[in-house]
Task: structure prediction
Amino acid sequence: MNANPRAPELPSSFAWLNTDRPLMFAKELKGQVVLLDFWTYCCINCMHVLPDLAYLEEKYKDQPFLVIGVHSAKFTNEGQRQTVRAAVGRYEIAHPVIIDEEMALWGEYAVRSWPTLVLVGPDRKIVGAVAGEGNREGLDEAIAQVLAEGRAAGTLASAPLKFKREQSVRAASGLAFPGKILADPKGKRLFIADSNHNRIVVATLPDSAGRSSLIRVIGSGREGRDDAPADRATFHHPQGLALMGSTLLVADTENHMIRAVDLDAWTVRAVAGTGVQGYDRAGGKVGTKQVLNSPWDLAVEGSTCYIAMAGPHQIWRLDLPMGLCRAFAGSGRENIVDGPVEAAALAQPSGVALAGNYLYFADSEVSAVRRIDLAEELVETLVGKGLFDYGDIDGPLADARLQHPLGVTISGEKILVADTYNHKIKELDPKAGTIRTLAGTGKPGAQSDAALALFEPGGLHAAEGVLYIADTNNHRVVRVSLADLSWSEITIEGLEAPGVSRREEAEHATATLTAPAKLRAGAATEWKVRVRLPEGTHVSEEAPASVRVSRGEHVLMQRTMLGATWPLAFELPAQPSGSADLHVQVSFAYCHEGMGVCVPANPSWSVPVSFSERGESATELTAAVA
Result:
């Protein structure tokens, strides 16, 4: 860049998210100090910058200072408004984001790598740029200096810019962006990393219809790293899970820690990590004296826990109960290089699974499935070619392509892969040297003509012929029979979002039908939901909608839909004769026309119903959203 060049304009024609209007240097941004964050949502380094941005936004919230994310996609899937919008919600980003179409702004600002941060002064002159993570202190000093200089020169605006931001939809499932999942057939339990609720859900293994019951929630729902009894302990966007006897190990990803849950005493304690991100690529310290960097998934063999350490592009090993934690595979250089573990190069490993003598892992940034021969300590690539080689190709492994897979699990002699950015689950056969699609359509969805569709599944686990999928962006977990690929959405009886009870939901119903609906008993009935939205808004087709019908504490049905047509239609399973008071809850997002802001709506109804043989086969509910 030339010295203090003029910042190129941010196009109003591009898609803007998390703001009620485009923001332009020639208009709204006059006199504002602006920090542009060039990012792409797959990138672990970009994720590491977000806490720094949140810190700066909070520190300068009363100043004319604004962060704007410029999303310049690496993967094809990341270039879609729908997927970027989901990422903004998943990462809980508070600032506006512009989608950099065809990387036009990337080129105009001469950006070369993710993340790159560009500081623009109140006079629209570029103050400077810095690439990579770990620059909070320097950015803080530069922002303070630019604010002071602008104030002295009279070029600074008098107040910060105000804008409206998006809010997340509260899903009927009670989950929010679930990450990893673990089935325990012996204990008949299912463990779910309810990542954006900062907790671990423990439920019974579901039946073939997907029905399950809540056993316990581990974590209060608040962000933190408090060791405490289960109801008071805190996590920060946990991901990977591994079971070792009566201990559940948790990759507490954004705390950069490994936590242990005593499933007998229901207490949580830290076993590795300091709670602060570190840049050590060797390790060798014990327990909570050893810094970690974005542990994403876990696998246990005996007393050894293998850690997919996404931050430094390595696999680490935690020896329990000694607590010694050290790097095992990967030089720390981001690439795809096979060979001895200490010389091999990995790229953001995000899922691990053990099978015999091999540790399989999803190496997401190179769109690869790789494995480590634990006896020979050698890394081998099964699928994957390079940092920018990706696609959606089944067949022989040499020709196959994936797109940013995040999870692997073992099913017999096969490796099942969460091909996340292809919205698919794939089956890799190491002996045959082939890979094929098991589920998913290749685009975001919830179901397609009764077949299973997915939206960036991030975790999966196979046990006793059943595959459990964390369908992350659909806020749900799915059960799939591997014998015939029949599937069901899992309904966890008793699970609610933190701070919400079913009684409160019923008490705050937005509509109460005084005349009882008269419906047919002994057969399924068809229901439709109509909503009247504020003028100038429409239902979002990009965010999942969900519906739940309950009778007291018992959930009769739960369903997630993506891109559904309205009025929203669903089927209530057959009910016996008699009277019942039903509670119907619907969750969806609606958007303002021509704006980048979508907000949640959660209409609900208290419905007295009389079921009889002569009842109607269908009914309809209506509500107005204020």
In short: The mean pLDDT is 95. The CA atoms of residues 356 and 374 lie 9 Å apart. The chain has five helices and 47 strands.
